[in-house]
Amino acid sequence: MYGDAAKKLVLDAKRSLNLNDVPLFQADLVKDVIREIDDLNKDAEYLTSQQRLQEESQGSFTEEEQKINQCQLFVTHLSMRRNKRCLLAYQKSRADQIDEFSWLNIDPDQESYNEKADASLSRVSRLNLDNLSHEEQEYFRNYQEVITNYKSNFADLDLSGDLEPPTSIFIDVRVLKDGGEVQTEYGVFNLIKDSQFYVRKSDVERLIQQGYLEEL
């Protein structure tokens, strides 16, 4: 049925909002939606030609037949527009997730980062490139390059940190899920669920963003 594949894409995008990784690209569903749009476009072209024929051959078609054709053409265009909007929403949702990973400096290919605070994240959250389409992988790398070049102009600022000013330098945090060893300027601690630490906020800010820690 028309619209089913597009609906599945939107539901997949909605479910992925609560995940710590970008899920597998639904290539088959995307192809189904594009194929459906092509079929609808052919139907629209046929109905348009029928409408033109009705206008040229006066009296050959009843008023009811003309209204039926106009209604079919209208619904066909609405169906195409809906499919396109669902497809764009799916791609936009994934692009937003890729953007977020890029700003958090989550490198899928290396175990180290340019910044000291990012070293801990390499073992607790990463972007699986195998889940991305070829175009998404290229977008991710290009976007990371843009961010790196932009950050180089502000070497003394952490542009990917929390936008809210800190109320204190050190904070108490609780570990929400296991994540392995974390290296900070003031020492090493292990992310073991339900354990608590008193740490410098700037060292764990991104772990909080990723949902591994919560501030008490």
From TrEMBL:
<keyword id="KW-0235">DNA replication</keyword>
<dbReference type="InterPro" id="IPR056783">
    <property type="entry name" value="PSF1_C"/>
</dbReference>
<keyword id="KW-0539">Nucleus</keyword>
<dbReference type="GO" id="GO:0071162">
    <property type="term" value="C:CMG complex"/>
</dbReference>
<dbReference type="GO" id="GO:0000811">
    <property type="term" value="C:GINS complex"/>
</dbReference>
<dbReference type="InterPro" id="IPR005339">
    <property type="entry name" value="GINS_Psf1"/>
</dbReference>
<dbReference type="InterPro" id="IPR021151">
    <property type="entry name" value="GINS_A"/>
</dbReference>
<dbReference type="GO" id="GO:1902983">
    <property type="term" value="P:DNA strand elongation involved in mitotic DNA replication"/>
</dbReference>
<feature type="domain" description="DNA replication complex GINS protein PSF1 C-terminal">
    <location>
        <begin position="170"/>
        <end position="216"/>
    </location>
</feature>
<dbReference type="Pfam" id="PF24997">
    <property type="entry name" value="PSF1_C"/>
</dbReference>
<dbReference type="Pfam" id="PF05916">
    <property type="entry name" value="Sld5"/>
</dbReference>
<feature type="domain" description="GINS subunit">
    <location>
        <begin position="52"/>
        <end position="154"/>
    </location>
</feature>
<dbReference type="InterPro" id="IPR036224">
    <property type="entry name" value="GINS_bundle-like_dom_sf"/>
</dbReference>
<dbReference type="GO" id="GO:0043596">
    <property type="term" value="C:nuclear replication fork"/>
</dbReference>
<dbReference type="GO" id="GO:0000727">
    <property type="term" value="P:double-strand break repair via break-induced replication"/>
</dbReference>
<dbReference type="GO" id="GO:1902975">
    <property type="term" value="P:mitotic DNA replication initiation"/>
</dbReference>
<comment type="subunit">
    <text>Component of the GINS complex which is a heterotetramer of SLD5, PSF1, PSF2 and PSF3.</text>
</comment>
<comment type="function">
    <text>Required for correct functioning of the GINS complex, a complex that plays an essential role in the initiation of DNA replication, and progression of DNA replication forks. GINS complex seems to bind preferentially to single-stranded DNA.</text>
</comment>
<protein>
    <recommendedName>
        <fullName>DNA replication complex GINS protein PSF1</fullName>
    </recommendedName>
</protein>
<comment type="similarity">
    <text>Belongs to the GINS1/PSF1 family.</text>
</comment>
